Amino acid sequence: MRRSIFAPIALAGALLLASALARPAAAQMEQQALVDRSTLAVQEMLGAAGGADAAHYNDAVTMLRRARAVMVCPRVFRAGFILGGQGGSCVLLARDGAGSWSSPAFYSLGAGSLGLQIGVQDAMVMMMVLTDKGLSALMDSQFKVGADASIAVATVGAGISGATTAAVGADIVTFAKTRGLYAGIALDGSLISARSDWNRVYYGQSVGARQIVVDMAAHNPGADPLRGALMRFGGAPAATAAPSYQQQQPQGFQQPNYQPPPSYQQGGGVQAEPLR
């Protein structure tokens, strides 16, 4: 009798526990899907070593190796007839001085336009953030592309060569791979907004973009394939050239009173596990 009474209670408890454990994973499905699409976008945009877009690919990889951070928008959709609109979801990742990429912070991208236009366009977009100033601008709750004259943004479409020259002095360089009826994608006037609600769902706590991408205080293993793809194509940050007098010294030469530089230590937060 006692066993028959407690069996349904035990079963109900087990079901409640299973439901509680499954709820966080189910809540992250939309965010994880965006992270997975971003991984595929990185592989598609940077993995086309041959073909007509080889020069574009090489420029993008070169910029990624110099980048302080990168924003990936796996699908920016634009459609219009007279009145047009543009939108998409994005992730932002940054890396520390040792070359380890952070987990992603979530953003939305939206814009409206007015003009004689008809058609649809589907684009993958990567924004290579080359300076700390550019990264700080993107980490604001809202950033309007082209509105801040102190932030230089260069846009390069697929198949356009000379991106490295065109991007000299830019804080952010945008690469786009487009499909559809529009000749190119224009990001000027687009509003990039932080999605704090998505960050909270994905990490199970309230964390801001700076805590995620700079302090590396939050990590989700579901983002490891994306971090690995960026490590694969971007490698370590580009090293600063040594002074000429050091370049002329024989191998093994050390300046008098030489002291080895201290190892880099990311300040604040819990650093994500490096991917090698």
Name the helicity range. 25-40%
How many domains? The number is 1
Q: Strand share of the residues? A: 25-35%
Distance between the termini: 59 Å
| Beta strand count | 6
Radius of gyration: 23 Å
Spans of at least 5 consecutive residues with low confidence: 14-23, 113-118, 158-165, 240-274
Shape: globular
Mean pLDDT metric: 72
* Main sheet record: 6 strands, mixed
The total count of helices amounts to 9
Q: Output the helix-strand order.
A: HHHEEHEEHEEHHHH
Which structural category do the helix and sheet elements fall into? Answer: alpha+beta
Keywords: Signal
GO molecular function: phosphatidylinositol binding
InterPro entries: SH3_domain_YSC84-like (IPR051702), Ysc84_actin-binding (IPR007461)
Protein name: Ysc84 actin-binding domain-containing protein
